Amino acid sequence: MELIKKYFPDLSDDQYAKFEQLEALYKDWNLKINVVSRKDIDEIYLRHVLHSLGIAKIQKFKPGAEILDVGTGGGFPGIPLAILFPETNFHLVDSIGKKMKVVNEVVEGLKLTNVKTTNARVEEISGTYDFIVSRAVAAMPTFVHWTKGKIAKKSQHELKNGILYLKGGDLTVELRDYPKAEIYELRDYFEEDFFNTKKVVYLPLKYKP
Ligand SMILES: C[S@@+](CC[C@H](N)C(=O)[O-])C[C@H]1O[C@@H](n2cnc3c(N)ncnc32)[C@H](O)[C@@H]1O
């Protein structure tokens, strides 16, 4: 929790209270349905919450904007981002029902009124979004294929819209066909060793192969 205050010092009491409550909710649910590994649950603020919030260091979401979290699993990065941007709308999607059950319980427990959830493959989701966020779901070519047509051409963020993907390691091969991809190193924003190889890849919509 101290980590959240260290990097996001200007949040409201309600936001800090939600981040505080989040740990207990996940710990409780993880005893029943294992959605977060044991090591990760002990370091949930570093490995899940702060990592998810890395996206916010690259892009601030506007009130009323629509964000799709593809393959949210236990709710990452969608839930921490929904706490950080309470006036932005988040749609969290995953194809595994039991993970969505936990997400639904956490959303309810935290009283997050800006989160909608759907248990489905992303290919089945219709509608368009200002940004698509994700972590650890698929290689970029597959991900781009799955999400084709789901990014609004007219964004509420003026000229910025597209995919914001949390990735790690060497991306040279994976992003070879995406010359417009912008790579942001999270070690430039967070000093913990965990972030040494972590990045946010921003793929603008107007990418033309
Ligand atoms: C490794 S987990 C990552 C979960 C979460 N994003 C995180 O970082 O903790 C990948 C998730 O993507 C989901 N997934 C994979 N392909 C999907 C698809 N086509 N549509 C929706 N969800 C998908 C899986 O069910 C799984 O929960």
The overall pLDDT, averaged over residues, is: 92
CATH class identity: Alpha Beta
Bin the helical content: 25-40%
Overall strand count: 7
Report the span from N to C terminus. Answer: 42 Å
Inertia-based shape: globular
**Can you tell me the CATH topology?**
Rossmann fold
Using the 3D structure, state the CATH architecture. Answer: 3-Layer(aba) Sandwich
Low-confidence segments: none
| Strand fraction | 15-25%
Structure description:
The chain has helices at 2-7, 13-32, 38-42, 44-58, 78-84, 97-109, 140-147; strands spanning 66-70, 89-94, 115-119, 131-135, 162-168, 182-185, 198-204. It has one domain: Vaccinia Virus protein VP39 (Rossmann fold, 3-Layer(aba) Sandwich), CATH 3.40.50.150. The N and C termini lie far apart (42 Å). A seven-stranded mixed beta sheet has the order 3-2-1-4-5-7-6, covered by helices on one side. Helix content is 35%, strand content 19%. It is of the alpha/beta class and 209 residues long. The chain is built from seven helices and seven strands. Helix 2 packs antiparallel against helix 6 (97-109). The mean pLDDT is 92. The protein is globular, with a radius of gyration of 16 Å. The structure holds S-adenosylmethionine. S-adenosylmethionine is lined by residues 70-74, 76, 93-96, 99, 121-123, 135-137, 146.
